[in-house]
Here is the input.
Amino acid sequence: MQDMRLRPARRGDGQAVFDVTRLSVQALAKGHYAADQIAGWMGARVPAYYEELIAKGRMIVAERNGTIVGFVDAEPGEVTRLFVLPEVAGSGLGKRLLDIGIDKAREGHAGPIRLESTINAEGFYRRRGFRTVGRGHFSHGLGGDPIEIIHMEL
Here is the structure.
């Protein structure tokens, strides 16, 4: 973690954020979702999709040696995205990014903080105080076939 640098995402980071998402899903969701779900996970998403999210000014990326290895995005009341590369999973980076995401989600919001967890990440969020409030399908942005998620609140 000492060699990690956190910064606001900026124009031009879309490809790296796309790659982090894709690689994270391929490695970390394996065994929790069917192979065809993982293969179609990104659906119609392309790096430009992430550039649009970055332009909103809420995304924070983590860099190691100048390479983006994780990111978090949030809006008032919700942590909307948190992904890390498989090689940094378990390093404490996810917790650090989640703390940032929660702080951003609290800006201008007084109620509970929500998120949509992948099945494989439910334990991670539970250990950080989130509780399961239901099940459903991913609702943010473009995607392939519906991806089962767990609705959680803090």
Q: What stands out?
A: The longest strand covers residues 67-75.
